Amino acid sequence: MGDHLDKSQHALLNEGEENEMEIFGYRTQGCRQALCLAGSIFSFGILPLVFYWRPAWHIWASCVPCSLQEADVVLLRTTDEFQTYSWKKVMWISLSAFGLTPDHPLIADEEYIINRAIRKPDLKVKYIKVQKIRYVWNNLEGKFQKIGTLEDWLSSAKIHLKFGSGLTTEEQEIRRLICGPNAIDVEITPIWKLLIKEVLNPFYIFQLFSVCLWFSEDYKEYAFAIILMSVISIALTVYDLRMQSVKLHHLVESHNSIIISVCERKAGIQELESRVLVPGDLLMLTGSRVQMPCDAILIDGSCVVDEGMLTGESIPVTKTPLPQMDSSAPWKTQSEGDPRRHVLFCGTEVIQTKAACSGAVKAVVLRTGFNTAKGDLVRSILYPKPMNFKLYRDATRFLLCLVGTATIGMVYTLCVYVLSGEAPEEVVRKALDVITIAIPPALPAALTTGIIYAQRRLKKKGIFCISPQRINICGQLNLVCFDKTGTLTRGGLDPWGAVPCDRNGFQEVHSFASGKALPWSPLYAAMASCHSLILLDGTVQGDPLDLKMFETTKWEMAISGDEFHIKGVPAHAMIVKPCSAANQAPVEGIAILHQFPFSSALQRMTVIVQVMGGDRLAFMKGAPERVASFCQPDTVPPSFIGELQIYTTQGFRVIALAYKKLENDHHTTALTREKVESDLIFLGLLILENRLKEETKPVLEELISARIRTVMITGDNLQTAITVARKSGMVSDGQKVILIEANEATGSSSASISWKLVEEKKPVPYGNQDNYINIREEVSDNGREGNYHFALSGKSFHVISQHFSSLLPKILMNGTIFARMSPGQKSSLVEEFQKLDYFVGMCGDGANDCGALKMAHVGISLSEQEASVASPFTSKTPNIECIPHLIKEGRAALVTSFCMFKYMALYSMIQYVGVLLLYWETNSLSNYQFLFQDLAITTLIGVTMNLNGAYPKLVPFRPVGRLISPPQLLSVIFNILLSLAMHIVGFVLVRKQPWYSMDLHSACTMKNDSLLKLTTSPNVPEKTGSNGAFTSFENTTIWFLGTINCIIVALIFSKGKPFRQPTYTNYMFVLVLVLQLGMCLFILFADIPELYRRLNLLCTPVLWRVYIVIMLISNLIVSLIVEEAIIENRALWMAVKRCFAYESKSQYRIWQRNLANDSSWPPLNQTSYSDMPGCGIGVSYSNPVFESNEEQL
């Protein structure tokens, strides 16, 4: 529906974004609605229930297609592989209350979306609200567009001109009405709503049907048991959802009630509640500790902001004003580097403001409500990306098979009972009974218990889960991405040494561990002043790297008083000065006048300082290669590259420093960054140590030995990342690293990609040092043995994605080290791995990893910051030991789910076969017989079978990922056939026994006669068949075979090694099986008349009871042999795969096979260009993100 529609009826919402949707226009029709209402009444509420499960059917039934412009209802369909439907009513806003005319200047200017949305002449705005975001109808372009944000096309000049003085009261009122309130409202969902949503689940509806049927048959005990289990299951789910709703509500409620100063164009500054803010409002930021209630662009003054909510790191970040440029290009493209350095994000805290010459810090509201950064984070939690895990799809198919089986049973039952002349109501009841037997109503509760147990075990290990369904997916992980800093390595950086440099080159390394102070020099001054630290409540705060560097100097920080007067210096400037413990310096102190803050895109920061009683200087620090490019070439030592490699290849973090003298008469704000950052003098290198965490290497070795790929995604230096990969064992000793460098197209040449082999070499002058990296020039065949890893930077990854997309899957097959990656690139990389059918895990410390943590199949955050709420798993232990724990528990939970599915299938089929055989005699099992099997056997097994813990060792293969894979299907079908054969043999043999008689003459005649009298007593409510009662030799035989067979199947299907602890370690389960088996054998051999009467059993000769036991033992032995020798024989299945030349259809497996046969891969010491054949942008693979086609065995 909707694929061949008129263009005016169909459009795309949020085109190209993560939440892209198709939108279809519909108009409600009175006669169709009347028919739907009549259908709802006559179907006794079944039709509304179907419409609730299938929203598209509701719209198709009650509405007619029309153009989006005429629509009063829209149907939405997601563009991902799930194709999820929803519908929304079109609503209207009237502006007539403002008394405006269509030609009023406020609404006549159609440059802005708000004005284009106003329909003239009646001044109405049409809108829809989808996932908390408001979309208005753009009358000019004829489409729905997002509102609540400033237009992307606005230039910096336009922002300063249009919004620099604030909005008028009328503009504010109109925008307020159209954009809606600036609030991230997450209401606490009422319990009754959660309850109704949960109860309307199709399986609970089926349970309701089953319970009603059982009550009509006086089968009250099990009905009450199922009601109790369902109530507990629903209560646990509702409680969990309610707690999440409350937690999320408390997370955002403080944001909605902030008082903030807003400058109005005519009325001046007013104190307003944050709910009334609109895009374009001018905020006046004063004082400190201001919570940002919206996203805003800083246009005047600077701020220090704590962005812990967004990044997971509580590090003060300096924000600079958006420069006013003449260009008409969009403001995001005008600013050099990252445009986010001008944006104050919602939910972050402004901890310090610094006014410029105008005397105020001003910011223009950019986005409000759910359009903001925090709103986006909250929406990602409220509307998570659905999972398409094959287990859940297979479960649906499995249930459909059971439904098909039940239908066959119903037809058989109808034929048998109608031909035997039974009353119609009895025939219908018996036929419906078959459905409740074939489809076990206890299945959801049994599966839920397995997940709850796994969640509880994870909690004991300090791993918390907000998405329990993902625990099963953990069992399928075959690739794990790790952030480096704070995840693989320790979070902090310790200063190790400094390498000063002069005109003669690098001097001797000064080690900080020696205890000797670094002599006074410009390098020392740079370390003391080139940072973004702030003084807050008497303590120095800021980036850990800056903090460690400053602490090394033993200087102190202070704010200048009012008596401090230097030309061009603001009154309260930051001053650093030597304290008593510091090395004697020939200066009284240094005043920091201006900062050009650090950004990961620019890889540098610069400060302008004034030495007290001395020169005005500029200091720069940053990535060595970047800093050196801004220096005078003759000041950079010739051995710069070699010296840098010595330290980066040992895993050290290296920072370069440089400086220049400035003229004192220049005002600091008049100096542009370009002018300051030129012709610098190179000062030297600062070496910082970032040690591996103790747990890193053993954990990575465990994952690699289990054939789980490990990948590093970091924002750090590439060579440092390569060394950390080697030291951690991610790249083992005998393996090669191939460096991939890709460059954008320049004027003369197209985009290029080059491949260089990186080799370890022992440098002669540094015998006491570790290895360093050298680029080999000669071609080597070692890299072509498949024993190699690719390393590349974020820049190269971007160029490859843009210009060499056909090479991307080949590179990803062996890509292990990705350095200098931005947060967006981390998410993209995770998605690209998913397209190759990998099940991807992402582990990060929350800093800039939020997107990747959300994108991965399994994201685990090592941070408990607010930003980590988007991650399904959070570990209290801040190291990667949680990853193997999670995979082990995931594998155990996945195997447990399969065991439970198989057991429930067999239990229902055993009962189904037994009942259908008895129906042949128009007999059945009695209520107490059913109750014993359902409650005393199956329910107890369902609760205890899941208690096996995870096996402590990770094996080098994953559990079967599909419920309908050949081994699983064979296991279920074989056991069903075995049970069927045993039941038929028992049913046929008992009728051929010499003591068998319908008049109950046998070796136990006296007992059976008394039993018969007891059974047919009028005081006992009984369902009766044509033979007068349930009691028969067939019934007794079938019941014993079925009941004990349920216990045998539980033992057979309860798997232990290699993914779960052995069955004998599950003491509760073993105890339950022993007690159940003991009880069944006791009933079989006991000859207690009262017990037999209650259970509607007949006494049989002891020999026949022995035959029953022999049949059951034979069943156990055959089933056990087949299960162990065939079903669980991995070597056999691998041989079968080879015999039939089966090859996995997973994309990564296909690429592995292709690359293994490609002698020209990898292309060492070559450079390719995007205009060369085979290097174009044609995408050579395509697969849905959350899909895996691997047919595992």
Automatic annotation (TrEMBL):
GO MF annotation terms: ATP binding; ATP hydrolysis activity; ATPase-coupled monoatomic cation transmembrane transporter activity; metal ion binding; P-type ion transporter activity; polyamine transmembrane transporter activity
Residue ranges constituting the Cation-transporting P-type ATPase N-terminal domain according to the UniProt record: 151-219
Stretch forming the signal peptide: none
Enzyme class: translocase
Residue ranges of the TM segments: 32-53, 222-241, 398-419, 431-454, 892-910, 930-948, 969-990, 1036-1054, 1066-1086, 1106-1127
Localization of this protein: Membrane
Membrane topology: Multi-pass membrane protein
Keyword Transmembrane attached: yes
PROSITE patterns: ATPASE_E1_E2
Catalytic activity: ATP + H2O = ADP + phosphate + H(+)
One GO location term (cellular component): endoplasmic reticulum membrane
Pfam family, one: Cation_ATPase
Gene Ontology biological-process annotations: intracellular calcium ion homeostasis
InterPro entries for this protein: ATPase_P-typ_cation-transptr_N, ATPase_P-typ_cyto_dom_N, ATPase_P-typ_P_site, ATPase_P-typ_TM_dom_sf, ATPase_P-typ_transduc_dom_A_sf, ATPase_P-type_domA, HAD-like_sf, HAD_sf
UniProt KW keywords: ATP-binding, Magnesium, Membrane, Metal-binding, Nucleotide-binding, Translocase, Transmembrane, Transmembrane helix
Principal place of residence: membrane
Keyword set includes Lipoprotein: no
Family of the protein in this entry: Belongs to the cation transport ATPase (P-type) (TC 3.A.3) family. Type V subfamily.
Protein's name according to its UniProt entry: Cation-transporting ATPase
